[in-house]
Design goal:
By secondary structure, this protein is an alpha+beta fold. It folds into 3 domains: about 90 residues, no CATH class; about 120 residues, no CATH class; about 100 residues, no CATH class. Helix content is about 30%, strand content about 30%. It has 11 helices and 21 strands. The chain has a 5-stranded mixed sheet, with helices on both faces. Helix 5 runs parallel beside helix 6 and helix 10 packs across helix 11. The longest helix has 16 residues. The two termini are about 50 Å apart. The relative contact order is 0.08.
């Protein structure tokens, strides 16, 4: 994929169309929607057989020539040949951030616009900043990473387009900062424009880093836990009742069929579904909402809902409240349905 090399090689991410075509080849068609015309025109253009290209001289709107710097030979060129096109990096990196599952909106943090904050990787209670450095020069990448370490002051993730700027000094710096390094050419598939797809779950790509800094919570057999993928939210949780005492649960590709005991919602004395399971089923039958005005609510539900919220948070390992209050009504932040509905 030529995109990542272009990020490393195109100066200031701007150039005439022939420059972008040189670096992108046939893939330029996928990047063109992110190229914006600039007000400035090029002062020189690439030219076969030259290193610095030819100087641009504009005599008139329809009289533009490219002049050889040594021989002064002039060749006519069109105005479209000297239009500068700037990459809309913000839109591109928003797509990268979204594919990585990060929170926040990317922004430049210096180094001549070559260093960007992509967002925050949130794993359970831990938050890790993710930075993108786009230089391929080893010394520049080392300086950028040192700058990131001073900004972050905590474990972070460094992303680069490729490993072109790698060095032993960089490896030592990252180890000292307890930081992770990933390359976009290895972890992302480009779908065109600002759309990307991860080649594997981010938790797998950063497994060693996360095991050090965000280890999974320990559980016991007395309190079963769902194998919730790191970073999942209530919006990723789907619970469908198959019957009065069984549910089909899906969270980001993890699928289980469970009974009340499997969700820690069983009365230990009677071995029957407890009141919280019964309330969860009420939510399922009501399509995830309990409306006080429509008569499917009860004063007894208040305490049961609070206890159910704690049980679901512990079972799925998601700290946020699984229920939202809308006026006087309750709405599940997760998807829940019942086959009986």
């Amino acid at each position: 994929m030529r995109l990542w090399r272009a990020l490393e090689n195109v100066y200031c991410w701007s150039g005439v169309r022939s420059v972008w075509r040189e670096h992108m080849g046939d893939e330029l068609q996928f990047l063109e929607p992110l190229l914006r015309p600039m007000e400035e025109l090029a002062l020189s253009v690439p030219w076969p057989g030259t290193v610095e290209g030819r100087r641009v001289v504009i005599h008139d709107e329809d009289d533009i020539v490219a002049v050889d710097r040594e021989t002064s030979e002039a060749s006519p060129i069109a105005r479209e040949d000297i239009v500068l096109w700037k990459l809309d990096a913000e839109t591109l990196f928003k797509g990268v951030s979204a594919a990585l599952g990060l929170a926040g909106s990317p922004s430049s943090v210096g180094m001549g616009n070559r260093l960007w904050w992509l967002g925050e990787l949130i794993i359970v209670e831990r938050v890790f900043p993710v930075y993108l450095a786009t230089t391929k020069d080893a010394a520049d990448l080392l300086r950028s990473t040192a700058h990131i370490a001073a900004l972050a002051k905590r474990p972070f993730v460094l992303a680069t387009p490729s490993r072109s700027g790698g060095s032993a000094d960089l490896d030592n710096l990252l180890a000292g900062c307890e930081a992770a390094w990933m390359t976009l050419d290895a972890v992302l598939e480009w779908l065109g424009e600002g759309a990307f797809r991860l080649r594997a779950p981010i938790t797998d790509l950063l497994r060693a880093f996360l095991e050090r800094h965000a280890p999974a919570r320990r559980t016991t057999d007395d309190h079963p836990r769902f194998p919730t993928p790191r970073g999942a939210t209530w919006a990723d949780v789907s619970i469908r009742f198959l019957g009065a005492e069984s549910v089909h649960v899906v969270v980001r590709g993890e699928v289980r069929e469970l009974d009340p005991a499997g969700m820690n919602l069983q009365d230990r004395r009677t071995k029957k579904p407890n009141l919280q399971w019964q309330l969860l089923r009420v939510f399922g039958l009501a399509g995830g909402r309990i409306f006080w005005r429509d008569g499917n609510a009860s004063r007894d539900f208040q305490k049961r809902k609070e206890t159910l919220a704690k049980s679901l948070s512990a079972f799925f390992g998601i700290d946020d409240d699984p229920f939202a209050l809308e006026g006087k009504d309750w709405r599940c932040r997760f998807r829940v349905a019942a086959s009986e509905a």
